[in-house]
Amino acid sequence: MNKVVLATGYEAVPTVKRKSLWKVAGATGVFALYALISWTLIGRGIVADGEEGTSKFVDMATAKTCDEIGPLSFAGIGYYWVCEIEVRPYSSGSKQEVAMARSFPGELSPADIGKPVRVKEFGRYYARDFKSDVPWWSIAPAVGGLVGLGLFAYRRQVKRFREPPSGRPVVTALSLSPVRTTGSAVAPVGLPATASRTVTPHEWSSAKFWRICGLILAVGAVFGIVGFTAERGTELREATLTLAAIGLLSPGWLWFCTPARLGRSTWRTTFTVSAEGIRWFRRDKATFEVRWEDIRELRLTTITDGKRTLRLIDFFPADDEFPKRRRELSGLWEIGATLDGRSLPPVGNGYRLPEAFSDAAFAQVRRAMVLIRPDKLSEYRGIVQGG
């Protein structure tokens, strides 16, 4: 197998934190408020005034009646006027070819009733024929938010790989007990050379997937009830039913967003167990492959403090010369872990994958090892002392 492509020497220590309910609720509220503000600004930007067009080939409309809609519509949060209009296409010439339509929210008002207005088609609606496009101030918050989110994710990723502070932290005592030891099974005979399984460390379990789906489905159902009770043909009904459809279809689109699906992308962190050995891939941080003849034991360790669970994967070299041959793996040698802010002891005389695994990913690695190399597999359970 190939040697390491890149190792920083400061690989991330596997970490599991207990998420504060207030932080999760606060982050959800801030995101919802940001989405509503961006949605509303874009809606208002579409109806912003500008210089009227001068083309002769333009549809003309006359407002007949107007109704005020709100507080929720596809134009955002707020109240807008929507008018029933008669539209005469420019292609009709002198013919009295007219069609009934509705104006885009905020484009016309009762003051425009009976007056000819230059309009252009905007989906199922008609808007004023202005030359200006959507103003910068309406899309700036949405673009700025996406850029800010990307910078935050990048800064957080860089922070994980920064040089560790000088001095050893206070290590919490840990009690380990074996669940499965090496030598309790033999390697299978006639294993295909292509036998392999790739796992994404943060892969979601079915329980986690349906917990998230259940919350989104409940919100979608609420919007659906509001939409079906709203008057037919109104913007409120259209907006709420659209949101309801997004929520009720969450099992489909959320499935495409799970780490398991994204793990097929070349930039995702993955761990592979194959007939030849193991492979760890983390783009631009650490990528290595080790053959089975160089591995004495691959250990799965589950550690708990009664509230959170940390799942670690370690491997131990088959001979004492391995660390000298593979100096590029020094960043993974005898590193510790962090569970809910407490530093745990490092793995002794072994290498630790620099990531905490989810229960679903852990189970996949265990199944792969049982099928491919059960003779190399061991498993331990740990309990944090004084936790």
Q: Structurally, how many domains make up the residues?
A: 3
Q: Structural class given helices, strands, pairing?
A: alpha+beta
CATH topology of the largest domain: PH-domain like
CATH architecture of the largest domain: Roll
| Share in helix | 25-40%
Corresponding CATH superfamily of the largest domain:
Pleckstrin-homology domain (PH domain)/Phosphotyrosine-binding domain (PTB)
Taken from the alpha-carbon principal axes, the silhouette is elongated
Provide the β-strand percentage band: 25-35%
Strand elements, count: 19
Characterization of this structure:
The structure is a single chain. The protein is of the alpha+beta class and 387 residues long. It has helices at 21-46, 136-160, 206-229, 235-248, 250-257, 259-262, 322-325, 359-372; strands at residues 15-16, 59-69, 72-73, 76-77, 80-88, 99-102, 116-122, 125-128, 174-180, 196-199, 270-274, 277-282, 286-291, 295-304, 309-317, 337-339, 342-344, 351-352, 377-384. The protein folds into three domains: 15-22 and 158-162 and 170-204 and 262-384, Roll (PH-domain like); 50-128; 206-257. A hairpin with a 4-residue loop joins strand 14 and strand 15 (309-317). The radius of gyration is 30 Å and the shape is elongated.
